[in-house]
Description:
alpha+beta; Immunoglobulin-like; 2 domains; eight-stranded antiparallel beta sheet
Amino acid sequence: MKRLLFVVGALLFLLNVPAVFAADSVTVNLSPENNSGESGTATLTAMGNQTQVVVKLGGAPATAQPAHIHEGQCGPTLNPVPKFPLADVTNGASTTVVNAKLADLTTGGFAINVHKSAADLTTYVACGNIPTAAASAMAMPSAAPQTGGGFGGAYGQTPWSAVVALVGGVVALGLTLRRRVAH
């Protein structure tokens, strides 16, 4: 019986570790600009002191389109001088690692912008504001709203995952210590 409880506790802990320690990420909706018909998402994922930015655009041409993270917000407050260059979007996709923490990019002061071409940087084809960390944490999934429990939620984790992992870890540790004391 003790062995069964130990195994169950250890499994509860191990099954929930990935959810509790999941990488922080933020999704930016990229809206079409200048009747381009190009829209999609940019997913920013924390990587320590860096952030991976994955851009996916529908309706994009096969040719390279420059993309950047700019200070400001889409529209007239967008600083035309890029803060962080991103790999060109080719065939609707781009992946870049920038030298900035995700927390520094989710202050509400940045946007991701895709340009028509290297020859026409003044024409924007898609833009999206990087949400603040607080707004990202409160964002609901695009599917049915979550009502608690389960996996998902902000940054791929929920409070229940942390509770189950903690309880599983405590049960496993307690049974291990109890077993050692008994021998």
